[in-house]
Amino acid sequence: MRILSLSRLYRIKLEPRLKEPPGWYPPLVSFGAIVIALVFGGILIAFVGGNPFLSYAHIARASFGSIGVISDTLVKATPILMTSLACAIAFRMKLWNIGAEGQFIMGGFGAAAVVLTPILPPETPGWLFVPVMMAFGMAAGALWGFMPGFLKARFNVNEIISSLMLNYIAIAWINFWIFGVWSEGGFQMSPKFPKAAWLPRLLDFSDTIPLFRGLTTHTGMLIGIMAAVLLWLVVYRSRWGYEIRLIGDNPRAAQYAGINISRNTILVMMLSGMLAGLGGMTEVSGVVHRLQTSPLAAGYGFTGIIVAWLSKLHPLVIILVSILFGALLLAGREIQPSGIPKMIQGIILVCLIASDFLLRYQIRVSRAGVEA
Amino acid sequence: MVKSESAIQTEENTVVRMAGIVKRFPGVLANDHVDFELKRGEIHALLGENGAGKSTLMNILAGLYRPDEGEIIIRGEVENFSSPRDAINAGIGMVHQHFMLVPSQTVTENVLLGLDEPRFFMRLKEYDTKIASLSEQFGLKVDPKANIWQLSVGEQQRVEILKMLYRGAEVLIMDEPTAVLAPQEIKGLFEILRSMTEQGKSIIFISHKLNEVVEIADRISVLRRGKATANGLSSEGVTTKELARQMVGREVIFRLEKQASNPGDIVLDVRKVFAENDKGLSALSGLSLQVRAGEIVGVAGVAGNGQRELAQLISGLRNCAQGEILLHNEKISNRSTLYGIEQGMAYVPEDRTQVGSAPNLSVTDNVIMKTYRQPPISRGGLLDMSQANRFAEELKLAYDIIVPTVDTPVRLLSGGNLQRVILAREISGRPDFMVAVQPTRGLDVGAIEGVHRLLLAQRDEGAGVLLVSEELEELFALSDRIYVIYEGKIMGEVNIGLEEPSDQVVDMIGLMMTGTPMEKIGEGL
Question: ipTM, 2 decimals?
Answer without folding.
Answer: 0.83
